[in-house]
Amino acid sequence: MALLEIKNLKVEVEGKEVLHGVNLVINAGEVHAIMGKNGSGKTTLSNTIMGHPKYKVTQGDILLNGKSILEMQPDERARARLFLAFQYPVAIPGVTVAQFLRSSILSVRKGEIAPKDVRKLIKEEMTKLDIPESFMIRSLNEGFSGGEKKRLETLQMQLLKPSMTILDETDSGLDIDSLRRVSESVQALRANDRGILLITHYQRMLGYVKPDFVHVFIDGKIVKSGGADLALELEERGYEWLSEKTPDSASLN
Question: Does the N-terminal or the C-terminal CB of the chain have fewer CB atoms within 10 Å?
Answer without folding.
Answer: C
